[in-house]
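Is this the right way to post structure tokens for a design question? Let me know if I should format differently. Anyway, here goes:
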């Protein structure tokens, strides 16, 4: 860390001599590989943006100039250059977030890392600066890793294009090499010319002068304009960007310090919206990441930096259960198709894609489109399975409600990483899906408690052809199987008291194991408990109501927002059924949860057997139990 250790702010980055920037870039890459090998994290994207991030901090003046990263997982280098060098607890409790974080630094702005939002943020910030008379402050949006596939980005571009004087620089971090780099003096000259007001004035003069020329003036202008555009498109394929009316620079070699700084300085001086198209290589500088064909180490666990091999062989995870069953279902039913939003491997659809390549659709980071497209597929006779992370269902709520449910389309939504995910921070906890699903008419939601139930309930879900179904399960290793004592209709009874129970305890999904732990502690205090897993938790079934009807008290444990969640739905269903016993609801509080391990977060919010049982013991005094018995 010879050069890197001298950097505590962007001013220090500017002070590095140009001939030492390659050395700095190598130090940064060495630091990232060494640090992330100990903690895990998003290594590949950050290895690709080293030179780009250095150039941004040499050209712009953060935090006076605002840098917005989209997606936020490509901000590790930014953290280093703004003085945050302790990566020892990256994504762990008390350590650095894996995304930008306002609590960490004034240099961080947007921390949710739900992709495709940066251009809207940046346009708003730039317009606010202008309204405040701060014309010398610049706004830069760095958008990459597929975020331009999201429709929201194009909505923003449509608005940015008409504001010709907005001081906004859009850096397109193209790490898929969808465009070939343009080299040579003429291309550089044209790029420089496009980003000058002289060029714009020349075009305006030509348009007004030639249009006043009788007969041939307009035709001459159109011909000259067409030749100009043709030459530009051959040398620098700006295509749709400049057709929108936004100035375009590039493509620029994203690993060439001099070229990057030159392009960014031109963009900064232009005085209006400019797109700087930068070509980078994901995983650059570390061969195991660079050569990985799946995702170039987009996200990685702990590994040996010498060999690139993981320190631990991961066990079977929840996603594997879904993945294997989807392949089996695909063989049995040709109408089953799969849709995902740029998450084919993370959500476990890669096996289905390999087996049935014509029946899987990756729509990019476009969850809204995914759901409405699925509605069309369902109307056409298919049964779509839409697999996304639970937190990203939020982005397609209107489509779930109005395109899918209103039209009674048979679509199965599979929500991976539901509940507390922990280390990925507040934006990635899947804690809202059951609350938003609970208000969708006709929707059926299942929360499997173990891997066997994932398979069973997925099969049950795809049999529903007149309403949306949802299957949700958490991140990580799959839970140990929990065998039911018996099945009562659609409900699994996991523990049954010998006498009439003092409490019916409902464990939702993976929290069924917690519910059993709570029951054991309550029984030791003389409180008899029946534990049930509703399996299909929304809507609340008549079978659940039949079991709760014989108990003086009911409790619900869920890893979803307690406000408007399953507990609230159970309470409403009991009241509608005429049952008046108390319902004690335990879930995630209505607050954003800081990054930590899943276990640490659950401990903090009180979703552990010890905390829940203590709370229930306090509430379930013998006198209140006797008073509330239905037969009393």
């Amino acid at each position: 860390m010879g050069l890197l250790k001298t950097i505590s702010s962007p001013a220090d980055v500017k002070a590095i001599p140009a001939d030492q920037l390659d050395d700095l870039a190598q130090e940064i890459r060495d630091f990232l590989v060494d640090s992330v090998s100990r903690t895990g994290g998003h290594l590949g994207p950050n290895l690709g943006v080293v030179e780009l991030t250095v150039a941004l901090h040499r050209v712009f003046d953060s935090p006076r100039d605002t840098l917005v990263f989209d997606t936020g997982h490509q901000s590790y280098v930014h953290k280093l250059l703004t003085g945050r060098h302790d990566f020892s607890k990256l994504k762990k409790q008390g350590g650095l977030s894996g995304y930008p974080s306002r609590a960490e630094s004034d240099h961080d702005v947007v921390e949710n890392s739900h992709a495709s939002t940066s251009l809207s943020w940046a346009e708003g910030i730039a317009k606010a600066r202008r309204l405040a008379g701060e014309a010398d402050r610049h706004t830069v949006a760095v958008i990459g890793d597929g975020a331009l596939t999201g429709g929201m980005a194009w909505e923003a571009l449509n608005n940015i294009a008409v504001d010709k004087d907005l001081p906004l620089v859009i850096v397109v971090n193209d790490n898929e090499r969808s465009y070939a780099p343009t080299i040579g003096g003429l291309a550089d000259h044209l790029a420089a010319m496009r980003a000058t007001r002289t060029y714009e004035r020349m075009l305006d003069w030509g348009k007004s002068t030639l249009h006043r020329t009788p007969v041939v003036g307009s035709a001459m202008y159109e011909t000259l304009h067409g030749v100009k555009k043709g030459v530009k498109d051959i040398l620098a394929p700006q295509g749709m960007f400049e057709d929108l009316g936004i100035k375009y620079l590039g493509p620029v070699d994203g690993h060439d310090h001099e070229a990057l700084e030159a392009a960014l300085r031109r963009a900064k001086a232009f005085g209006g919206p400019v797109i700087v198209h930068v070509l980078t290589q994901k995983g650059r500088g570390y061969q195991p990441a660079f050569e990985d064909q799946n995702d170039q180490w987009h996200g990685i666990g702990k590994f040996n930096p010498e060999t690139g091999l993981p320190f631990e062989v991961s066990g079977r995870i929840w996603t594997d259960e879904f993945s294997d069953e989807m392949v089996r279902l695909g063989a049995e039913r040709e109408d089953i198709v799969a849709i995902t939003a740029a998450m084919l491997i993370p959500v476990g659809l890669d096996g289905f894609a390999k087996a049935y390549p014509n029946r899987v659709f990756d729509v990019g980071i476009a969850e809204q489109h995914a759901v409405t497209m699925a509605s069309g597929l369902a109307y056409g006779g298919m049964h779509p399975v839409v697999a996304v992370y639970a937190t990203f269902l939020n982005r397609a709520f209107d489509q779930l409600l109005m395109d899918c449910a209103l039209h009674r389309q048979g679509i199965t939504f599979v929500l991976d990483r539901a509940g507390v995910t922990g280390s990925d921070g507040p934006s990635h906890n899947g804690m809202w899906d059951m609350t938003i699903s609970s208000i969708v008419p006709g929707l059926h939601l299942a929360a499997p408690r173990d891997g066997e139930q994932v398979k069973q309930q997925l099969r049950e879900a795809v049999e529903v052809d007149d309403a949306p179904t949802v299957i949700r399960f958490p991140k990580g290793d799959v839970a140990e199987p929990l065998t039911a004592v018996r099945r009562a209709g659609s409900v699994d009874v996991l523990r049954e008291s010998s006498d009439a129970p003092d409490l019916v305890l409902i464990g939702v999904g993976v929290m069924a194991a917690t519910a059993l732990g709570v029951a054991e502690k309550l029984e030791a205090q003389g409180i008899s408990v029946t534990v049930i897993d509703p399996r299909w938790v929304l809507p609340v079934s008549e079978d659940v109501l039949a079991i709760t009807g014989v108990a003086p008290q009911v409790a619900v444990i869920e890893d979803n927002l307690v406000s408007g969640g399953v507990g609230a739905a159970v309470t409403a269903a009991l009241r509608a059924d005429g049952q008046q016993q108390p319902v004690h609801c335990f879930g995630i509080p209505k607050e954003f949860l800081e990054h930590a391990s899943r276990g640490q977060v659950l401990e903090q919010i009180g979703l552990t057997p010890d905390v829940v049982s203590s709370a229930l013991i306090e509430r379930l005094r013998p006198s209140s139990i006797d008073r509330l018995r239905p037969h009393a």
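Format looks fine. Someone answered above. Worth noting: The first strand starts at residue 66 and ends at 70. DSSP finds 26 helices and 18 strands in the chain.
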